[in-house]
User: Fold these one by one.
Assistant:
Number 1:
Amino acid sequence: MIKFKHYGDFKKTERFFKRASKINIQDILKKFGKEGVEALSAATPERTGATKDSWDYEIITSSKSFTIIWANSNIVHGVPIAIILQYGHGTKNGGYVQGRDYINPAIQPIFDKLADDAWREVTRND
């Protein structure tokens, strides 16, 4: 025979979930959206400045999730310049220009800070 006994209540758990449901994630994502744009812009290699100045972000909200997207609108002849700077590209006379990983190092600290701030907000005691 197995017996279970329970002592206490779920006040702390209920308080945690109630607080978490009231947090305005949009404000946190807007803050980091702007910081991400600044970081990506600062890290983007520039010759003309067009790619550097073309970063923006978008927040997509659904009933179950929030998504933040950083995008670059500098497209020349159908080619997204930020992507070919990142990954490299062939040239018209058969050469190859090596890519430079500038996006990942620029955006990783933003991801880390976003996760830390969101967790701190959820676990904060009022």
Number 2:
Amino acid sequence: MSQPHKYLVTGGAGFIGSAVVRRLIEATDHVVLVVDKLTYAGNLDSLRGVSGSNRYAFAQADIVDAAAMRCIVSDFSPDIVMHLAAESHVDRSIDARWEPMVRFARTRPTARTRPMRRRRRRPIISCAPGTIPTACRSS
């Protein structure tokens, strides 16, 4: 077998992602870091069988949080990134895209109207000890 690689799998707690992660841990020598927001589609129970492996780590983070992702990628230094995070339900994807537009449409631009600001969210990252340096961890 070739040299082990470091895989970063987004959406790794989802149906397809967890199957990929289980396969990587059970059938190879690769190291896997799962990054998942744990929405309706993510389920850590699907990774229970591999969660005890020293080649597996989990980070609860939103892939749209650029600061958290920069920190994770910088510290983990993956060889391979598998992007499997997605909204699988069309209605939810459409709602997620239209909701900001609806809010904007309800706000009539006037001299007194302030531009909408997004609230900054702190990343929630928790990993196996030693996998992600303390600088990237928060609660």
Number 3:
Amino acid sequence: MAQAILNGSILDDGGLDCEGRFQYGTTLALGTYTPWVRSGMRTGDTFQALLTNLMGNTIYYFQAEARNALGAGTAGSVLSFITTLPAVPEVAIMAPTLLAEYAATLRGYIINDGGRGGSVRFEYGPSTSYGMVTPWMSGYITGDTFNHRITGLSPGNSYHCRAVFKINPIVYSGDLAFTTPSEVGAMTLIDDELLHMLEER
């Protein structure tokens, strides 16, 4: 959702303290009001209001209003603004590090948090159905990297993983596949072979 800050000014206080507010909407009928703010304003004073939960890429109309103890004064001209589309949250998966026969370190990166932080984790498993998840880690914003060490893997097997960014809605990275190293052969086999070669001599 988008947001905007509206600004108004008291042009004539009528000799009394004033307070101000805004009326706004997606049509010239307006219809939505902000609370009255800044009681005690006089000519030349300014006031503002933060509008939240606005629709992106939409024209909004608004006008400033003021009142004093005698009642509401003349409202300002109806003006308009266009909201922008909010940044799209995006998370990426990076190549795992410290690959071992039974473990790997999964890594992710927050490309864009959409203007608000969130929690992250990884999904992983032998296929793109994943099936296993790491614990949620909170407090991540644009530019942050994150990682988690997973264990219990099998040597020489292929796995899939993806990063998850929990805001509203949840955002997923693309899929990434990796393979654990094969298990090293038992040293006793090498010893037996060397022993056999020595016996032949």
Number 4:
Amino acid sequence: MLELGIRRSLDPRVIDLQRTVRWITAACLVAPSFLVVAAVALHPRVPFWLKIAVWGGWLAGAVLLAWFAHRWPPIAYRYASYLVDGHGIEIRSGVVWRAVTNVPRTRVQHTDVSQGPLERSHGLGTLVIHTAGTEHAIVALSGLDYATAIALRNHLLPGGAADAV
């Protein structure tokens, strides 16, 4: 049963999911850049001081990416929440730039719940709300337990004889 009027955090499993995604991204950035740095370092005409600077820059970037991959998801989790009531849904997110998105039920055209392979492995899903209008016509709320996403989808669906859909 979906309780209305209570501000809720995302599912805590989203932290592990986001860490996995960020580690994959970091690996995809660090591995090819390592090859470029190694090629520069092995070139005989590059001065020694430049080789040290290139390796130092690469190492600093790799450490920064590793920190970001591991520490940022819990920080972002603290600032993400949603509130569902009889009128619609309010979604809050953002650490540096904060956003509040309100979607009234009267503007909801249809809703979907999606799951990518990593979300499915963590038991999570993304609620996708399609609204009337052009700006922010698609609103997504990821990091929800799959059953919660289904319950939200069913709640937000327009219903009743007065709805013109």
